[in-house]
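hey m, so remember when u said the tokens were messed up on ur end? i reran from scratch. heres the input so u can diff it against urs
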Amino acid sequence: MQIKQISVFLENNAGRLGEVTGVLARAGINMRAISIADTADFGILRLIVDNTEAAIKALSSGGFTIRETNVAAVEIQDSPGSLAQVMELFQKSKVNIEYLYASLSGKAGKAVVIFKLEDHEKGLQIVTENGLSMVELF
């Protein structure tokens, strides 16, 4: 199981993030997880939304440069050491994590960690074999 992430490439200018969130709001899109990484010149906004197709259409129509990527959303306990256990599984299996970010799942005591894995299929296999829960919607 995997989910689609939208990456939006933004110039590092005041107001650009507001423009993205405005486009999504007007299209009735709910953001479920968000991360932004920036440099002096540009930023990459990564989003998980409730309606990927509608978000892509709205952002493309708004003139934004976007890319869709498969990521794994793994539900873990919201407790000390839970993420470390998952990281250890990937390390032992030599699966490289390109990046990750997290979101609260809305369930008491749970969090969702979004993983972009170098070897996506192997990573999904490790998650499944070790009894971890993956989520498609949260």
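this time it looks ok to me. The two ends are 13 Å apart (CA to CA). if urs says something different then somethings off w ur setup not the seq
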